[in-house]
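Thread: quick sanity check before group meeting

JM: Hey all, I'm pulling together slides for Thursday and realized we never actually wrote out the predicted structure for the chain we discussed last week. Dropping the sequence here so it's in one place. If anyone has concerns about the input, flag it before I start.
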Amino acid sequence: MLRQLFLKKIKKTSVALSRWTDMVKKTKAEAGIQEITVDELKAELGAGEKPVLIDVREGGEVQRGKIPNAVPLSRGVLELGIEKVVTPESDTPIVVYCAGGLRSIMAAESLIRMGYEKENIKSLKGGFEAWKKGGYNIEN
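JM (edit): ok, ran it. Output follows.
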């Protein structure tokens, strides 16, 4: 009986993740969200380019480390706080990231809907986990 309940719960979780992933893929395609790899981002930062890095993970996730100089603005408050960091009128490039690269797609789409130029918005492919796996510096 417990095994059946466990398997049923796993199935529901899988369906929810599938729906979420499908929604992110659809949003990325329809909104034309650009992605940047961790290697491309590192190269840009090394070349002196200064995109604003926005970390849309939740507080507990950020406490485990973040990309140096990133501004923590969790996905839940992004729209409320982003203009205190960079305004839609500026031409400043923005790179948003989360843990794995899905929430940041949705965050990028939200910024575009708020009036930020699509060409200036990118989502970090693979998110913070890809940054760490790439061996790049993190700060606490």
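AS: nice. The longest strand covers residues 52-55. The domain at 33-133 is CATH 3.40.250.10 (Oxidized Rhodanese; domain 1).
JM: adding both to the slides.
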